[in-house]
Structure formats: C-alpha cells, structure tokens
Amino acid sequence: MGAYVLQISSLLPFIPKHALISRQFLPFSLPENRHFSIKLESHNSKITHSARKNDVGFDTAAYEADRLSRDAEARKAMAETSQKETQDESDPKAWKWVIRNRVWESMEAQNIAQFPRPVHHRIPNFVGAHIAANKLSELEEFKMAKCVKVNPDTPQKQVRFLTLNAGKKLLTPQPRLRTGFFSILESQMLSSSTIKEACTSVGVAKYGRAIGLDEKIKVDLIVIGSVAVDPKTGARLGKGEGFAELEYGMLRYMGAIDDSTPIVTSVHDEQLVDDIPVEKLLIHDVPVDIICTPTKIICTNTPIPKPQGIYWDKLSPEKLGQIKILRELKSRIERETGQKLPCGPSEKLPPTAQRRR
User: Fold this and answer.
1) Is the dihedral of CA 144, 147, 151, 155 positive or negative?
2) pLDDT digit string (tens) for 50-105?
3) Which of 98, 285, 299, 332 is deepest in the core (most CB within 10 A)?
C-alpha cells in the first residue's frame, strides 16, 4: 500500500458558484463560515474514491441500523395508510391497495418471495430476480446505455451489479431520499472485493459520490421497481410511497432524462396483472416501456404519457416536509421564477411516518 499525504489548507470563506458544493453532501462537518480543501496524494498509486471516503471513516453498522429502523417505521406507516384507504371505498387510492395486497399475499402464499420477508409494503424480492436481471442486461437499451439509474431495492441488486460490472455509471437514489439525493458509482471507484458491497444500500452510501440538483448528467436508462405491472399498457404500481415518481420528476428538472428515456422494470411473472385501470392513473404515475421477468421480455408500447416533472399541486405539505432535497428544489424554482408554487391538499400522515429532519 502506498504512503499517503494529507494536506489541509484553509481557504477564503466563500465557495465559487461553479464549485456547486453543498454542506449536506459532505461526509464530515465543516465549521461555520469556514471551508477547507482536503488533498490526498499517493506516491505510487492513484487513490480511488472509495479510499478517500474510507479515510474519513464510514460507520457501516450505524448506517445499517438507522436504515433498518427507518424502513420498519415506513412500512408500519404504509400498513396504516393501506388499511385506512382500503376501508374507505370512496378513496381514489383504494383500488391500488387492493391490487398491491393481492400480489403480496399471492407471492407469500406461493413461496415465490425471497428475503426480506414478508414482502408486504416492499418492492418484493422474488424468486428468479437474478434471472430477470440477466435478461434485462441483454436488452439493447442496456448495452447502449452509459449511465443507468436503478432503484435501491433488493430485487434489483443484480441489475446494479451488472451495471457496474459492465463499466457503466450507476445512479442510485438514497432510500426514500432521506439522507440526500442520488449517488453515482463507477467501476473505477471500486475493487473486485468491494463491487458487490457497493450494490447494497450501505455500499451506495459508503462508496458512491453524492450529487446535487446542479449535476450535469445524462441518464440513458431507468430501471424501476414494481409491485404490479400491466404488460398490455405498461401501467405500474409501486409500494405506495411515491418516491419513484418524485425521483423521475427531479431528473426531468435536471434535464437528465426526457420522454425518450426508456423505463424498464424487473418482476416475477406473478406480478403481471391485467386490472390496473389506466383512466384512474394520476398524471405523475410513471409507466414502463419494457418488463423483464424470469421467463420473458415484454415491450409494452405504453400509450400512457410520461410525467413532465414534479406536479406541486399534487404534493402535500406533509410529504414535502419529509424530503429536504425536494424543499430545496421548490425554493430554488420559486426564487428563479419569482412565483410561489402551488401546494397539494394536506394529508394526515400516521405518526410513525414523520421523518427526522
């Protein structure tokens, strides 16, 4: 291992606009009104990004414990929301929960679900997920892509591995956008011993480079998780939190994607349904162009329009309050346009759904 020299130099108390550095994305705290540059040099080898992050330290156990705690909290909140909205037949979201619960219960009953279980209120990890991922990697859209956005859920772990293994850029959102925005990973950041870990939620935080809204990036392919999807229309249901739609809307704002960016999902054949009413989908619901299962590849030729951004009039103040990066985007747009954006109707979230800010 080469010797490394740590040089810390104090800079003037300002950051040039083009630097686009955000305090929230740094892996350590900076004193107020003071900035430092940190330079790591190797006398005989190039330092990888992962080495730099490990030098400042990453508490894997603490991150994982916090992630599991928040995931359990979110699933409990979704269970309460599901029960409330399903019992109210007039609720416009009730039909979605009926389909989701049917799929989750079927997967458990047929034992086609894998860890973590139960699959309720998750993007379900299914038997044959790695086979579906391999089929996805055979798509021309995947082969041609230089940067692939993949959801952070377990059934798409193999897709994340294949993306990095093929030398592509991997863009992955922080789970529920709670600790930041997106992270980018590239194969040169990793070694053969760390690439598999980098495909996990902990690994993304540990080895990835966090980006902000100003990142200039082009995403060539989006891989999205699903609970249920209609192969005839491309209509899709997620687990009910709406983060896939928010991530899509923010990428549209950044100019990273457009209507031509293909959207792919990988699911078990039992997750294919034929009763998602297209006329009841909302304007921000994201359809899929291609479905990969362990047995087949389906091109949906979806007629459903893709969202054009974030629809602020559909976003409740409670949901906005959960996500810091979304509040920052809203404030930025309001400053740039000089106009206040609309806000959606308030919703009474279960107490367990409140996020630490």
Assistant:
1) positive
2) 333 443 467 777 666 666 666 666 666 666 666 676 766 667 678 999 999 999 99
3) 285
Only one residue has tokens 């939190």, namely: 241
Q: For residue 263, which of 232, 209, 302 has the smallest C-alpha distance? A: 302
> Per the omega criterion (within 30 degrees of 0), is the bond before 118 cis?
yes
Domains and CATH numbers, the chain: 4-47 (no CATH), 60-357 (3.40.50.10420)
- In whole angstroms, give the CA distance from residue 325 to residue 213: 8
Chain segment 145-180, per-residue pLDDT in tens: 999 999 999 999 999 999 999 999 999 987 656 556
- The runs of H, that is alpha helices, within the chain are 49-56, 60-87, 94-109, 129-137, 140-144, 157-165, 201-207, 243-254, 317-322, 324-337
What is the C-alpha to C-alpha distance for residues 159 and 199, in angstroms, rounded to an integer? 9
Whether residue 333 is predicted with pLDDT greater than 80 in this model: the reply is yes
Tell me which residue of 160, 171, 230, 246 sits closest to 199, measured CA to CA. 160
- Where residue 254 falls (left for φ over 0; alpha for ψ -120 to 50; beta otherwise) is alpha
How many other CB atoms sit within 10 Å of the CB of residue 320? 17
Rounded Cα distance between 104 and 228, Å, is: 9
Task: Note whether 288 and 295 are within 8 A (CB).
Answer: no
Q: Is the pLDDT of residue 1 over 80?
A: no
Q: What is the pTM of this model?
A: 0.76
Q: Which of 4-13, 26-35, 322-331 has the highest mean pLDDT?
A: 322-331
pLDDT of residue 16: 36
